Amino acid sequence: MAKTILMVDDSASLRSVVAIALRGAGYDVIEASDGRDALAKLAGQKVHLVISDVNMPNMDGITLVQELKKQPSYRFTPIMMLTTETQPEKKEAARAAGAKAWLVKPFQPPMLLEAVSKLVLP
Predict the structure, then answer these.
(1) Where are residues bearing 4-aspartylphosphate located in the sequence (predicted)?
(2) Domain count, the chain
(3) Any bridge partners for residue 4, and if so which?
(4) Contact yes or no for 19/7 (Cβ under 8 A)
(5) Which domain holds residue 81?
(6) Given CA atoms 70, 78, 93, 112 in this order, what sign does their dihedral have?
(7) Residues with Cβ < 8 Å from 38, sequence gap 6 or more?
(8) pTM, whole model, 2 decimals?
(9) For the chain, what is the HEC assignment?
(10) Cα separation of 34 and 76, whole Å?
(11) What confidence category does residue 44 fall into, taking pLDDT thresholds of 50, 70 and 90?
């Protein structure tokens, strides 16, 4: 059975690039445009990994991480931030909220897939 990854980014083109790479590697992908959209689309279903941008309208990525970690069904779901941000304060805020990894855009799909393979829940 394919593992499901939630991809959250306000850029439709970036979501598409990531989704193509992930689907090509055999993952199912749920796409969301921001944190609020992500929470609505999850609605309790199991995901094996969340990949989220940091800067988004309505609900940013760090707030999304905090909200997910409050929910028992997502407390142990690994979260990777995929962002243009490089400031140590942002990385630390994401880590403190519960994010497990940080990948900076632009990225190479093989690098993304390698990180995903290490993080995805069994």
Answers:
(1) 53
(2) 1
(3) 28
(4) yes
(5) 4-119
(6) negative
(7) 6, 8, 32, 50, 52, 59, 64
(8) 0.96
(9) CCCEEEEECCCHHHHHHHHHHHHHCCCEEEEECCHHHHHHHHCCCCCCEEEECCCCCCCCHHHHHHHHHHCHHHCCCCEEEEECCCCHHHHHHHHHHCCCEEEECCCCHHHHHHHHHHHCCC
(10) 21
(11) confident
CATH number of the domain within which 110 lies: 3.40.50.2300
What token pair was written down for 97? 């909220």
Among 64, 83, 92, 60, smallest CA distance to 14 is for: 83
The rounded distance, in Å, linking the Cα atoms of 46 and 41 is 11
32 C-beta neighbours (distance < 10 Å), count: 22
Average pLDDT over residues 93-99: 98
| φ, ψ of residue 30 in degrees (nearest 5) | -110, 130
